[in-house]
Amino acid sequence: MDFGIKGKWALVCGSSKGLGYGCARALAGEGVNLVVNARSSSPLEEAAARLRDETGVEVRSLACDITSAPARIDLLATAPQVDILVNNAGGPPPGDFRKFTRDDWIAALDANMLTPIELIKATIDAMIERKFGRIVNITSSAVKAPIEILGLSNGARSGLTGFVSGIARKNAAHNVTINNLLPGFFDTDRQRSNVAALAKQQDVTVEVARARRMAMIPAGRFGDPAEFGQACAYLCSAQAAFVTGQNFLIDGGAYPGTF
Questions:
Q1: Model confidence over 158-192: pLDDT tens digits?
Q2: According to a count of CB atoms within 10 Å of the terminal CB, is the N or C end of the chain lower?
């Protein structure tokens, strides 16, 4: 299927590896030009080179911390235009909520709620003018089924979800959609760090903690970032123009609810 987005420009945050890279790779495979971003320059440049070599699209990169307003200005200026925005940021650290400070909460909100909102503000009006825009926010399955040790993430990402729900429908008539992708347990660095924290909390080995977590997934495995990226590419497609304000849970069947 031709997704009808060849030649568009996408800004994909946190895209040097993991789920962000999976999204960037899937979009590039559809002929979308990219601006990729991460905090660390070396992994980002390696990812950008790989995307160019494998797909032939134009890939521009900028290593920066997008929680900084000047950095966001520089990042947005790197793209000729932003037709597709994929918001993604590493989640805050796990832990006992009793030990979280105010600064911990502010940092979590800044990275996982306020920064995505600022990027949406900076790009949505031009999307409306062009009568095409796709915004995808990578949040977490914890938005539907909160995880006790991820209190900072539960709160910040749920705030973003509520914000998106309030604005997504207003812009649908302009062919601008906003949706959220909710990953469950995927085989990423973030997942590995969470498993390590869980192992420490439960006083077991990482191997045991990993096996226990995998046993919670009906699919019997962790997700592949590439398949996550393909779901993102669909939400960014011309065919997804009738889908907005939705929370797509991708978790191998782990969530047990009907809704």
A1: 999 999 999 999 999 999 999 999 999 999 887 88
A2: C
